[in-house]
Specification:
With 384 residues, the chain is of the alpha/beta class. Helices cover 33% and strands 16% of the residues. The radius of gyration is 22 Å and the shape is elongated.
């Protein structure tokens, strides 16, 4: 018999109830001989009360709780590392059951805030300006892992049971973390339907924004099946420039992408599509680029989110200077478009837009020091 310290940990065979659709949760309990109304009770405990274990479900009998414990688990991602920026932004390195990791960020505002969740470990898109894009795609995240990121954020801020809208600090979800959510649509959709359910987390579709680099067929599916707010990582007004910095444009060029935006259900002046536009010095930031952008989107109910480029070690790009960004924004304003410049958040912990990255390995002390030096480097560059 091998020494005890060499034995592999037991393999978990119980089903994780977190992340199951309402129908799948009901079926899982029915298969164990439980009545359908039990699923409603468990759902309430999971997504309204935020229960971490079956023992907390006090309106269930003790025998039932034991039976549930025998066959099911309530597994959230583990927090491998948590960092809080000087501006209040909080970032988590989430570790999943197989040891893979992804990053999530909470971005606070004065009276609310959004959790930015990841949909994949790594990314397959290789956008040239994005730090995440330098990491290979490892795998899609499951609905439990996507939803679990939001639940961990709520754990961190003590927002259980589900507060009413007036008291919510964590008020929104943005699918803008690691990965392309529309390349993992089924799992993302399952997670978001759970989030939107009125008898649980209860975030309405207007509080959920899905950001895509332009997977045209799935944009249509997202509009038909979820109807959440749509954000497009645009970043260039012409095919040549966009294909250079975003290879996905070669598969879904701007003509197809813009038509998908025009056709997006619910798009109106009240629910405008957001076009995200990272400002890259000498690449996409001239007055001519602004004029081309205006022509490109003129008949689409939309607004812009201008993003100062967040540098990372090894990047060949620089952020446009402040005067150039201001002039670019003014061109859009003069044409009647809302075009605020996003205030960079969490740069000191590499939590800003385009900076999320993890190699899905345990962080050693050396790696932590390296990341801290990267953050210091990014702050120095930002100050120049």
């Amino acid at each position: 018999m091998p020494p005890m310290d060499t034995l592999a940990p037991p393999v978990e065979t119980r089903t994780n109830l977190i992340g199951l659709s309402r129908e799948a949760l009901t079926l899982a309990l029915l298969e164990r001989g439980e009545k359908p109304f039990r699923a409603k009770q468990v759902w309430h405990w999971l997504y309204h009360q935020g229960a971490r274990d079956f023992a907390a479900m006090t309106d269930l009998s003790k025998d039932l709780r034991v039976r549930l414990e025998d066959h099911f688990v309530l597994r959230r991602p583990a927090v491998a590392r948590e960092q809080t920026s000087t501006d209040g932004t909080r970032k988590w390195l989430m570790e999943f059951a197989d040891g893979q990791k992804a990053e999530s960020v909470f971005i606070p505002e004065d009276d609310r805030g959004a959790v930015c969740v990841s949909s994949q470990v790594g990314c397959t898109l290789t956008c040239r300006f994005c730090h995440t894009g330098t990491q290979r795609l490892v795998r899609n995240l499951t609905s439990a892992e996507i939803l679990g990121q939001f639940m961990v954020a709520r754990d961190s801020y003590g927002e259980w049971p589900t507060p009413n809208d007036e008291r919510r600090m964590i008020s929104n979800i943005v699918l803008m973390g690691m990965g392309e959510p529309l390349y993992n649509f089924d799992e993302v959709a399952t997670a978001m339907r759970i989030v939107m359910a009125d008898d649980g987390i209860a975030l309405g579709k207007r509080r959920i924004t899905l950001s895509t680099s332009g997977v045209v067929p799935e944009i249509r599916r997202c509009g038909a099946e979820l109807g959440v707010n749509l954000a497009i990582s645009l970043h260039a007004p012409d095919d040549d420039t966009r294909s250079m910095i975003m290879p996905i444009n070669k598969k879904y060029p701007l003509k197809e992408l813009m038509q998908a935006c025009r056709d997006y259900p619910g798009a109106s002046n009240a629910r405008r599509i957001t076009f995200e536009y990272v400002m890259l010095k000498g690449i996409n930031d001239t007055a001519a680029h602004a004029r081309a952008l205006i022509r490109l989107v003129r008949d689409i109910p939309c607004k812009f989110n201008l993003i100062p480029f967040n540098p990372w070690p090894g990047t060949p790009y620089e952020c446009s200077d402040a005067a150039t960004v201001e002039a670019f924004a003014q061109h859009l304003w003069d044409a009647g478009f809302s075009a605020p410049v996003r205030t960079p958040r969490g740069r000191d912990i590499l939590a800003a837009c385009g900076q999320l990255k993890t190699d899905s390995e345990k962080l050693s002390a050396k790696e932590i020091r390296l990341r801290e030096s990267e953050a210091a480097w990014a702050e120095k560059e930002a100050a120049l």
